[in-house]
């Protein structure tokens, strides 16, 4: 039986990030292994996921800082895993997992190596330091890759022109990780329950953002934007280093009672159902899973005008705004707050748009990629 190792950096537990690849690999009869720095509360819960999905889950102690010496240990763990399991396919994701996984795969002569880029650090408008540091490294690592998968069109064009996988490898575009749109469209919950939990009035308009509380996610711009819109409450689902700073900002703006920090939530479909507008003001994204989830939930969206977002957000479904433009976000919010009809119309348009990014579209693409690599690099049956 073919063995496939799927590598990512960090995850609380098995989630939708790897789900499409898991389904594709299992449909081809491969044994699916997934490695990450997990946050399972205990070994029993990890084992339950292994049994539930019929997979193997491995712990790799990745560190977030690429230069952290702890990543030497992570490399040794990956290398040991590859030596012990003898994988035929290695599918790497995220920068650290992508670098360490490909270096280890080269050492162990893995015949089929994939790197899936969830947003290159070098891109149009990126700081020159990103081009100086990340671009040369990726050019080298691409030589250890048989396939580069990009999840937005800007990265696809860049990779197609600038990166050369080894031998007869290729660059392909896949529309994201594959969203289970029915999970978000069919959720049944009374929005009042979520609102009541956070003391939000029933008649309030609720804007929602989902993502880590860090500089890149740029929640600050929405907090500033709602300051002059009295009926809007802003929920932020996520944890991160800027938590206290964002609380202080809301207090300084005099709107602490209208900004609600939800922390980590496992019931995100319910949270979307209690919301009216989705905001994604990030400076950088690959192809945002939270944006796709919000669209599948039928929400109108207000997003930063950056790569990835441009693939998803059409004029009939939302707004694309400079991530630094507080007044632009405020104007878009005002338009949506003042028109129930527009919110509903945009939400319906987004549900239609997101069908092209669903798991039903992505799984067949991943099956084709895996099967072609096996045929070309392992079984040697291609013409």
């Amino acid at each position: 039986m073919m063995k496939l190792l799927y590598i990512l950096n960090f995850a609380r537990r098995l989630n939708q990030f790897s789900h499409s690849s898991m389904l594709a690999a299992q449909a081809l009869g491969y044994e699916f292994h997934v490695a990450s720095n997990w946050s399972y509360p205990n070994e029993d819960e990890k084992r339950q996921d292994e049994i539930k999905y019929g997979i193997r889950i491995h712990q790799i102690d990745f560190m977030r800082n690429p230069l952290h010496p702890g990543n030497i240990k992570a490399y040794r763990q990956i290398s040991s895993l590859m030596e012990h399991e003898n994988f035929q396919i290695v599918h790497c994701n995220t920068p650290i997992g992508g670098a360490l996984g490909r270096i280890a795969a080269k050492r162990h002569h893995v015949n089929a190596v994939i790197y899936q880029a969830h947003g290159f650090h070098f891109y149009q408008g990126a700081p020159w330091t990103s081009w100086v540091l990340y671009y040369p490294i990726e050019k080298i690592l691409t030589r250890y890759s048989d396939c580069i998968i990009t999840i937005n069109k800007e990265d696809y064009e860049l990779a197609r022109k600038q990166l050369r996988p080894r031998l007869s490898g290729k660059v392909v575009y896949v529309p994201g990780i594959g969203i289970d749109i029915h999970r978000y469209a069919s959720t049944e919950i009374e929005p009042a329950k979520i609102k009541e939990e956070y003391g939000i009035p029933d008649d309030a308009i609720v804007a929602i953002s989902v993502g880590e509380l860090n500089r890149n996610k740029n929640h600050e711009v929405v907090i500033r934007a709602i300051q002059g819109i009295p009926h809007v409450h802003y929920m932020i689902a996520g944890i991160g280093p800027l938590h206290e700073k964002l609380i202080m900002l809301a207090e300084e703006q005099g709107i602490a009672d209208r900004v609600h920090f939800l922390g980590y939530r496992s019931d995100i479909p319910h949270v979307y159902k209690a919301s009216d507008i989705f905001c994604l003001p990030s400076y950088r994204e690959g192809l945002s899973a939270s944006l796709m989830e919000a669209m599948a939930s039928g929400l109108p969206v207000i997003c930063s005008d950056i790569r990835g977002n441009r693939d998803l957000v059409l004029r009939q479904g939302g707004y694309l705004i400079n991530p630094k433009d507080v007044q632009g976000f405020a104007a878009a919010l005002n338009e949506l707050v003042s028109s129930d009809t527009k919110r509903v119309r945009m939400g319906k348009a987004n549900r239609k748009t997101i069908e092209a990014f669903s798991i039903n579209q992505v799984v067949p693409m991943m099956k084709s990629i895996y099967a072609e690599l096996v045929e070309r690099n392992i079984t040697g049956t291609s013409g």
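The two ends are 23 Å apart (CA to CA). The chain has two domains: 3-178+358-379, 181-357.
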